Amino acid sequence: MAETTIGFEPPALVLAGAIEHPLTDITSYRAVGGYAQLERARAMSPHDVTDQLIQSNLRGRGGAFFPTGRKASFIPTPDKVAKPIYLTVNADESEPGTFKDREIMRRVPHRLIEGCLIAAHAIQSKHVFIYIRGEYSTEYDVLAAALEEARGAGLLGDVELTIHRGAGAYICGEETALLESLEGKRGQPRSKPPFPAIQGLYASPTLINNVETITNVPKVLELGPQEYAQIGAPPDSTGTRVFCLSGNVVRPGAYETPHGITVRHLIEDIGGGIANGRTLKAVMVGGSSFPVMTPDELDTKLDADSLGERGLFIGSGVITAIDDQACIVQFALRVAQFYMHESCGKCTPCRVGTRWLVQILRAVEDGSASENDLEVLLDVCDRIIGKCLCVLGDSAAMPVASCVTKFRDEFRAHLEHGGCPFGEDSSLAHLFAPVDQHAQVTA
Amino acid sequence: MIDEIREIAKQYPESKSAILPALRIAQEQYGWLSREAFEQVAEALDLTPAYCMSVASFYDMFQLEPVGTHMVEVCTNVCCGLVNAQAVLEAFERELGVSPGSTTADGNVTLRAVECLGGCSTPTIVAVDRRYRQSVTPEDVPGIVAELKHG
Amino acid sequence: MSAELVRVTIDEKEVHVAKGTGIIETALAAGIEIPVFCYEPRLGAPIGACRMCLVEIEGMPKLQAGCTLTAQDGMVVRTARTSAKAAEGQNATLEFILVNHPLDCPVCDKGGECPLQDLTFRYGPGKTRMNFEKTTFEKPIPISPTIALDRERCILCYRCTRFSEDVSEDGQLVARNRGAMSIITTFDDEPYSGAFTGNVTELCPVGALLPTQYRFEARPWEIQSVPTVCGMCPVGCNTSVDMREGKVKRVRSRNHHEIDEGWLCDKGRFAFTHLRSSDRIVDPIKRVRLRGFEPVSWDDALDTAEQLLRAAHGRVVVALSGSETVEQAYALAKLVRHGTDSHDAVLPEEVSGALDAYRLPLSAIADAQVVAVLGDVPLSESAPIVDLWVRKARRNGARIVTSEDEAKGADRIVLIWSGPGGRAGVRVAQLAERLGLADKDGCGAFFVPATPNGRGVADAWAAASDSEPGDLVSIGLLIVSGDEAAGDPNVRGLAERAEAVIAVSMFHGLAVGWADLVLPGTSYLEREGTYVNIEGRLQRLRRTAAPPGPSELEWIAQLASRLDVALSPHAPAVFAEVSERCYGGLSYSEVGERAALRAYEGAPAHVDEPALPEPQAKGDGLRLVCYKPLFSGPAVERVPELQFQRPQAEVELARADAERRGIKTGDEVTLTGGGASVTLRARVNKNLRAGVARVAREHAGDVLGTVDVARAGVTA
Ligand SMILES: Cc1cc2nc3c(=O)[nH]c(=O)nc-3n(C[C@H](O)[C@H](O)[C@H](O)COP(=O)(O)O)c2cc1C
Ligand code: SF4
Ligand code: FES
Q: Which CATH superfamily groups domain B2-58?
């Protein structure tokens, strides 16, 4: 059974010491300097720790790229609130194309735990929750074992750390849905404000960060914020990224590199180029939630600003190469099916709109749609974007709209051809979307 | 089981938070979330069975109908799809003689197509009884099916 | 509370509202309507789900759900009227809502009073761009015998499930599945049961949840709504009774924010069909020697009644039900007391005047810090709306306690006595006195009487005469007023001793057979008059449907004139007489449509009664507490759709008592006491206090007093 390829371009921070072999036991982790930063941090004032995070300009690796230190600084200090303060780590990783948090948890569980404990100190939290996606059984086992080791070594101090397993719902990666789920409810997002920093878990101040973000924290302290901030593409995209390279490339894998390398470098040099001698058609950048990139944009740097100039997003560090054997309409359809399946059903535009998108795309794919349906399709995207309760709706509409606008000819070809022009040759032909297992009703 | 659930609930500031672990335990015990399973969870956490069912039905990993002894879940999202997921799924359909979402006549295996399992660099990911197999190809499928028949 | 005012600009209009006011309300203050579906402040915090209320807020890049925001100083809001972006958002939402909607308005009972229909009319697109299959469901599904669910019409606003989870807290009506597959449902197709289920039919903003009784019965424009109050329990929820062609078609809430907050229990909502029960007595029925009983004319009946009254020679006894209006009770009292000089009555459970000093609107319960619920009858059975207020108090952070000691020390304490016992509220008044609750803001005490207007009836009886009851050795005539009295075993005992009996009864089978004359009774839905509720508030009943014959007031006035007693047949005039004596001269019109609670003036009365010890069970036994279930009584028994709501044959036990006996929920247990025994299913109730075994009266059989409780087949 093939393992995920792990690679890096110096410096490796998050995966440091774990490129060759996983670093799962506490002794080997200690051997690479593990838990030293926790000790240092605890000797510092909480405020100073937060300050170092602010100076490093570490930003969220979960998707929104929000400055981590600043988010921590929104958490009121214990003397200002009568409630406990919580740290919640988002390990729900369900964005199609993303697998970095899984690798981090498998390879450096102790670095994640160390990061949790440092971050807990920074916001003076006594209870940390790691919300891990339910499907990650092995990762749960590794993390739980590491936690027992850390607890045994007395590293937790007066902090409680609970690993909470999800049960299969992409939306629970959205921070407020995650909190609802952790509270024992259906994982439906909450309307903001109030923001979690003020009223989060059990209506108490709560900091929520992604696994990779938190795993960076010990490294920020180790290198010092100034040095950390030099890495990557300062000033905004500091540090490294564990990029998730997949799709039609020769060497897919999890590659840690500084921010700012080009997509081309990642695909062609690190990933060995497009497999089977085919040519690249499109790239899913950031995750399936964002607009796709066309081959002429390959020299764009993987940092938030460079991508932003092109209306693209760094998201959770996904790069999925799509070759010319894939039908882009089928790609859009399958992506839309994902969001329809994962829409929580709370707000109208997302619940209804994602289903409508699937219906139109299906008709385009089988050639029964009209040119007008393409306009309706774009219009439905427009009517979803910016109007939903959380950004899942936007995540469904943005990639679809980008496919239609960037590959309109291919969409038209379906209408003219009365079906998919690739026929059975498309790699995505008949790709089967999950049947909703709980539905006893027709939809 | 009720005691086990109540014990887990102690890890949380509010016992309702233990509903996912509780449903997981109940599902392991009953094979699926039957009426009785919901009643037990409800009793343990002081909730209504309707509430427990409502929560369970939100999550893909909970079975509200009986399922097979084994579960085969094939990722069919785009990253696996671009490589060979559809062929792997079809191989399972052939070998097991069932379509996705259903269970073999002997009640041994349920086949499901699922969303991205987070193993995109080693396509196709197949979760067999909730444990990942990586880089599964159509050629691997008969072996996996044989394993489930005998194991 | 600080009333800091902030300035908000909405569609270029400036308004000043208290900081924190919702944007929907702020807009209303500026005369601007923002359309909503999911927003319903009575259900708790807004959820921002439907996205109907999208508005543009200056400084925020994205459209915002107006319902989730509150007014901040300097906020600039643009609704669809002045913002193209907001208008586009609103259109988008409406289009999405309609995409799967069946548009079956012509056959939908909600048609004509449907927010979705109205908003579509006002803002909706003229045609649909949806060329694909709509989501379809089997429809309509009976989610209970009283409520039908049409899932195709559901817009998933979650009002109904939020009600079930966060207001009635029954946790039964829930959403199942996720995304486009989401549906509203109950557990395992069980009927949605509980005291308050019908409220969801009013909350639902579309025709998805509708009362089965109203199915295809009327269109809104054919309806006349009569504002009245419910006469089924001592709360007196304000209702609006919808009539078509002289018949009651449905009962809805008429929000009185101090009493019911717009909620109504299922008994009040669905029991009205008892009016049309097939065993309704429509003509007087007279005992005819040899031939038994036969219907007679009203003239004949009044002749007979007059004879019987005269023949009793001052030995008339009146047994009242406590469901009479103040006027009806007064009229009867005056007739008997002035016309025959008889002064004996069997009055419904009294309510002590000492409670008046602790008077509060029910809504004050929600703001209490501590609510002490004393007595062993579940509030949800005796006065269901009070139970909702207590739940709201708990959600607001109040401690709910069950003993005096636990109540001490808080600033805002509310005491509630839900019988049995409590001696007409004397005990709770004494307790209030001990805790010093008089004149303390937000503090008060309630006693839940067993009948809807027991207090008003007692007031009326007393107001009619100052004469003292005599020492009756024999009863010449017993007048049984109403079906509750007719069903009371004590009253039946008196009837056996009486030389003659006149009964006022709505239904065959209650008094026919043992009364010499049965006069057709009326329902509270058929009367004009007033009731005094649990708070001590006078409220006004209006006639909705016409009774089959003359009302009680009408025929009592006729009889009175035969006995030379002056009595008006009109409620306002009768009320004026009573009011002069006991309601400070308040006029009938002042009672009004949304009655105010009269303030109590004067010092709290000191009740000097010896503190009786609490009743205790003997030995190892448990004290049997029997209660009258909400879903019981002559009216409920006549409504087939409500039968599923009647209580199970079960006994509730406290956790400790159950554990000591090795009893689990669901076990068959035998109760033995007072020389009888009964076998029931056990239910362990963690909220019940120890030492008590609680059973609905109708399931207690002849068991009495202290009971032994053991698993069936095991001897205790
Ligand atoms: C639909 C949706 C799914 C998301 N899934 C994840 C996820 O799986 N993991 C994650 O870390 N963040 C996810 N996010 C982002 C989180 O809401 C949140 O921004 C993030 O956890 C914050 O952590 P960070 O600041 O460290 O990135 C998701 C957001 C949305 C809208
Ligand atoms: S049934 Fe009515 S109240 Fe309930 S979610 Fe649907 S539309 Fe809303
Ligand atoms: S009314 Fe505001 S989102 Fe529904």
A: NADH-quinone oxidoreductase subunit E (1.10.10.1590)
CATH of B70-150, one of 3.30.420.40, 3.40.50.12370, 3.40.30.10, 1.10.1040.10: 3.40.30.10
Write the pLDDT tens digit of every residue in A346-369. 999 999 999 999 999 999 999 999
Give whole-number Cα distances, A15 to A6, A94, A102, A246, in Å: 9, 20, 12, 19
d(CA C387, CA B20): 31
The rounded radius of gyration (Å) of the Cα atoms in chain B is 17
| pTM confidence score | 0.95
Distances in Å between the Cα of C623 and the Cα atoms of B110, C657, C703 are: 54, 11, 11
Q: From CA A194, how far away is CA A203, in angstroms rounded? A: 9
Taking only the tens place, the pLDDT of each residue in C10-69 is 999 999 999 999 999 999 999 999 999 999 999 999 999 999 999 999 999 999 999 999
Domain C354-447 has CATH 1.10.10: no
Calpha distance C190→C266 (Å, rounded)? 17
Same domain, A35 and A142: yes
> Is A84 an 8 Å CB contact of chain B?
yes
- Please write the tens of the pLDDT for every residue from A15-60: 999 999 999 999 999 999 999 999 999 999 999 999 999 999 999 9
Q: Which atom of ligand 1 is nearest to the CA of A392?
A: 1
Domain ranges, residue A17: 13-230
In the three-class reduction of DSSP (H, G, I as helix; E, B as strand; rest coil), residue C350 is classed as: coil
B51/C170 CB distance under 8 A: no
Residue A3 lies in a domain: no
Distance CA A337, CA A359 (A): 9
Inter-chain touch A438–C137, beta carbons under 8 Å: no
Where in chain B is CATH 3.40.30.10?
Answer: 70-150
Q: Cα torsion for A152, A155, A156, A158, to the nearest 10°?
A: 110
Q: Which ligand is nearest to the CA of C36?
A: 3
B112 C-alpha to ligand 3 centroid (Å)? 36
Three-state secondary structure of A277-306 = HCCEEEEEECCCCCCEECHHHCCCECCHHH
For tokens 């359909």, the residue is: B93
Whether residue C612 is predicted with pLDDT greater than 90 in this model: the reply is: no
DSSP C140-191: -EEEETTEEE-TTT-----HHHHIIIIIS----SEEESSGGG-EEE-GGG--
Cβ pair C504, C481 in contact under 8 A: yes
- Find the residue in C nearest to A347 (Cα): C49
What domain count does chain A have?
3
Q: Which of A355, A334, A394 is nearest to C181 (CA)?
A: A355
Q: Could you tell me how far CA C450 lies from the centroid of its own chain?
A: 13
Question: Counting one residue from B and one from C, how many pairs have CB atoms under 8 Å apart?
Answer: 34
For all residues of chain A together, what is the average pLDDT? 96
In the numeric block, which tokens belong to residue C400? 């709910």
Tell me the C-alpha to C-alpha distance, in Å, between residue C371 and each of B87, C358, C686.
65, 14, 18
Cβ contact C96–A353 (<8 Å): yes
Under CATH, which architecture does the C285-349+453-591 domain have? 3-Layer(aba) Sandwich (3.40)
Q: Specify the CATH number for C5-97; select among 3.40.50.300, 1.10.565.10, 3.40.50.150, 3.10.20.740.
A: 3.10.20.740
* Closest of C212, C100, C112 to residue C151, by C-alpha: C100
pLDDT for the residue C614 = 66
**Residue A92: CB within 6 Å of ligand 1?**
yes
User: Residue C492 pLDDT more than 60?
Assistant: yes
Is C622-711 in CATH node 2.40.40.20? yes
Among A196, A217, A295, A219, CA closest to A50: A217
